[in-house]
Design a protein that fits this description.
about 140 residues; alpha/beta; Rossmann fold; disordered N terminus
């Protein structure tokens, strides 16, 4: 697939080369309280997706209520102010069309969160598994 060039706000900055056409990029709300991990995830996801990063459930709700166009809510299991279960419960009630993906160490996601999430990914899993969960790709085996 040919790379596309994303326009920049000013002529002085170089354009960003996109490996995925804008029409195919998912818009992801990443809810991650750890700033270092948020930066790593954002950097990796931004290669093929569009990412909005917030550290708390309250900030996630503000983004959602502002009407930001999104496809996926990707959340750490534990947040500063609540849990992914609380976030996903609200998302399911008001924005049920959004895909809900949670990540946590293997075996650390409780039943309420598993039931509210479309996908659960272990933090020990390869990054590709997280991307597959976001993009709703099935395991071919």
């Amino acid at each position: 697939m040919a790379a596309l060039v994303e326009p920049t706000a000013s002529d002085s900055s170089p354009p960003r080369i996109l490996s995925t056409p804008l029409a195919l990029r998912r818009r992801i709300l990443l809810v991650e309280p750890d700033p270092d991990l948020a930066r790593v995830l954002e950097r990796e996801l931004e290669r093929t997706q569009t990412v909005v990063v917030v550290p708390t459930l309250a900030r996630a709700l503000a983004v959602l209520e502002a009407g930001t166009r999104l496809h996926v809510v990707l959340s750490a299991n534990r947040l500063r102010d609540k849990t992914a279960a609380a976030l996903f419960w609200l998302v399911r009630r008001r924005w049920s069309y959004l895909r809900r993906v949670v990540y946590a160490p293997a075996g650390r996601v409780r039943r309420p969160t598993r039931e509210l999430a479309h996908a659960v990914v272990a933090t020990e899993a390869p990054f590709e598994e997280l991307l597959d969960a976001i993009l709703q790709r099935e395991d071919p085996s």
